[in-house]
Write a structure and sequence with these properties.
By secondary structure, the chain is an all-alpha fold. It folds into 2 domains: 2-34; 44-112, Serine Threonine Protein Phosphatase 5, Tetratricopeptide repeat, CATH 1.25.40. It has helices spanning 2-27, 44-65, 69-82, 87-105, 108-112. It is flat. Helix 2 packs parallel to helix 4 and helix 3 (69-82) runs antiparallel to helix 4.
């Protein structure tokens, strides 16, 4: 019984390795001229843009934590100008807009869970 379990485990491992080997062998079958190269994103301009996005996100979060929702919204919009697909900025913008709306209605403390 134990021997048959060992054989089954061994065969399963061999099959898994064979599948991985076939997968990686298939990857090498694409001629080099047809492969798409990933562009080098480490240019100074790109790095400056990434740094600016990080700074605006941090400032937006800081303003949000200080309950300065208009400034937070401005910072998140700056991020979205630089990176329209940034999920953190989209989420921060939505949260800031909700907080502004609720604070204008006087029910912000309910939103915060107080």
């Amino acid at each position: 019984m134990i021997e048959s379990m060992r054989i089954r485990t061994f065969l399963t491992s061999c099959l898994s390795l064979a599948v991985v080997a076939v997968f990686f062998a298939g990857c090498e079958s694409v001629p080099k001229k047809e492969r798409k190269e990933i562009p080098d994103m480490s240019t100074p301009a790109h790095e400056a843009k990434v740094k600016a996005v990080e700074n605006h996100l941090l400032r937006g979060q800081g303003f949000y934590n200080l309950a300065d929702y208009e400034s937070a919204l401005h910072e998140y919009n700056q991020v979205l100008t630089l990176d329209p697909y940034n999920q953190g900025a989209k989420r921060g913008k939505l949260m800031s807009e909700r907080a502004m709306s609720l604070s204008n209605q006087g029910s912000f403390l309910d939103y915060q869970g107080y």
